[in-house]
């Protein structure tokens, strides 16, 4: 179980959900986009529910381990959806090896 700190508070989520949320938030920030995600969570009082998080370039979120309360807060569908969206965003980013190999040479003549 993990605490995702968001805005002025935190939410308790499962480990896989936490990882998927953070990876998706980073991918969104890298391409300057935002999205609203819904994931199962637990309140500080121990009540199960669902939380909606707005993720984007300005999101300031972080996570820390929380005491396991013996409640399953995993949602395979939500995790798979965020991982799929993350992968699609990462495919749209230019990679270091994608540069034109015929570009200008950076070799300089150091003989004066």
Description of the structure:
The chain is globular and about 70 Å long. The longest helix has 17 residues, at 15-31. Strands 2-1-5 form a 3-stranded antiparallel beta sheet. A two-stranded antiparallel ribbon has the order 3-4. It has helices spanning 15-31, 76-92, and strands spanning 2-6, 9-13, 35-42, 48-55, 61-65. By secondary structure, it is an alpha+beta fold. α1 (15-31) packs parallel to α2 (76-92). The mean pLDDT is 85.
Brief description of this entry?
With 112 residues, this protein is an alpha+beta fold.
Q: What is the straight-line distance between the termini? A: 64 Å
Portion of residues within helices: 25-40%
CA-atom Rg in angstroms? 20 Å
Adjacency order of strands in the biggest sheet: 2-1-5
User: How many DSSP H or I helices?
Assistant: 2
Set down the secondary structure blueprint:
Blueprint: E1 2-6, E2 9-13, H1 15-31, E3 35-42, E4 48-55, E5 61-65, H2 76-92
Jot down its keywords:
112 residues; two-stranded antiparallel ribbon; three-stranded antiparallel sheet
